[in-house]
Amino acid sequence: MPADSGYPAYLGARLASFYERAGRVKWSVSIVGAVSPPGGDFSDPVTAATLGIVQVFWGLDKKLAQRKHFPSINWLISYSKYMRALDEFYDKNYVEFVPLRTKVKEILQEEEDLSEIVQLVGKASLAETDKITLEVAKLLKDDFLQQNSYSAYDRFCPFYKTVGMLRNIIAFYDMSRHAVESTAQSDNKVTWNVIRDAMGNVLYQLSSMKFKDPVKDGEAKIRADFDQLLEDMSAAFRNLED
């Protein structure tokens, strides 16, 4: 008996039996399914049934692909139900990663909300902290999430490099907000324009972190460079607030 859109009523059960093949036998079987709904309609029966089964979803975005942003995965609609599966590993080896990941998700979501306001009233009317959010979100999208798999420096990213990049970007975000908020009532207010003009070199170094080559530069040098950038950034913000 046909169900929604003429698909058989057992569509969901058949899809489930296929995806559940992964992990049901000894050794490792990975299944990555590619579903292309007509017109990008996520209410399509096959798409809806698949999303009800799988535990991880990477939502490809046509607009990102048109902007040459690869991988063209929409960070707002994509998800994983295994987010806590590696928490023990993170707590043991990269204790700062989970809070950083949470903060990044918050910034990207806030940037999406602010973009609607910007279209209506313009960026100039935003609060200084909101301007910081937009600029840091741009850093995250263009210099962290976007990758060039054909380059030596970006074809793979060791986890220490991932965490180091996130740490420095989020540190810049936190320090920028602190500088703005702590001087809001003083005569020498720190605005985003002041930060941008004073931190030109820091912003350049933040956007250049991805160019560190794990093979050519090595872990020790990359870690040292990231630590030095964090130290220089902290000193620059102290001078800015004095």
TrEMBL record:
Protein's UniProt keywords contain Ion transport: yes
Pfam families in the record: ATP-synt_ab (PF00006), ATP-synt_VA_C (PF22919)
EC primary class: translocase
Cited InterPro entries: ATP-synt_VA_C, ATPase_a/bsu_AS, ATPase_F1/V1/A1_a/bsu_nucl-bd, ATPase_F1/V1_b/a_C, P-loop_NTPase, V-ATPase_asu
Domain of life: Eukaryota
SUPFAM superfamilies membership: C-terminal domain of alpha and beta subunits of F1 ATP synthase (SSF47917), P-loop containing nucleoside triphosphate hydrolases (SSF52540)
Gene3D superfamilies, alphabetized: Bovine Mitochondrial F1-atpase, Atp Synthase Beta Chain, Chain D, domain 3, P-loop containing nucleotide triphosphate hydrolases
Annotated catalysed reactions: ATP + H2O + 4 H(+)(in) = ADP + phosphate + 5 H(+)(out)
Residue ranges that the Swiss-Prot or TrEMBL entry lists as coiled coil: none
Biological processes, Gene Ontology terms: ATP metabolic process
Domain ATP synthase A/B type C-terminal residue range list: 88-187
Known EC number: 7.1.2.2
CC terms in the record's Gene Ontology section: lysosomal membrane
Keywords: ATP-binding, Hydrogen ion transport, Ion transport, Nucleotide-binding, Translocase, Transport
Limits of the ATPase F1/V1/A1 complex alpha/beta subunit nucleotide-binding domain: 1-80
Family assignment from sequence similarity: Belongs to the ATPase alpha/beta chains family.
Protein name: H(+)-transporting two-sector ATPase
Organism this protein belongs to: Leptidea sinapis
